[in-house]
Amino acid sequence: xxxQAVDKARIHATERELVPRLFVRAMFGMVMICLxxxxxxxxxxxxxxxxxxxxxxxxxxxxxxxxxxxxxxxVYAEDRSLVASYSPEEGGFLSGMWRVxxxxxxxxxxxxxxxxxIRARENNRLEIFDPSTGWGADLMGFGADNSAAFARLLN
Length: 155
Prior knowledge:
The protein is of the alpha+beta class. It has a six-stranded antiparallel beta sheet. The relative contact order is 0.12.
């Protein structure tokens, strides 16, 4: 009789559980701990976003980006001379950054073909900054290969 009650309770269960119940409970416990920690942090007025450590600027260049949906990209110097031209296979990240700039500039209702500033800092971090919108990004967060694409432009 007792086996019939167990069988009825496990109608949809397989013979052997795929994930032990202890692990499922531990997972939900960790999620609850994270939720409590984040809530406590916000209730104590912790800052919402991370900013890279401030460091002196070593190199700064004003450049113009031009991209295409195919991934091709061109980079021009401040005097509008061509610095680099990338095929769709090579310029994917640069073209992606160009699309982000276009979106930010459209939202801010400013000129779409303005310059950007690429900065190398003393702490070996690279950043892109759009003076027309105030938007910027720490390029190290996009991975070494992607930030190297902009590092090559500073040389």
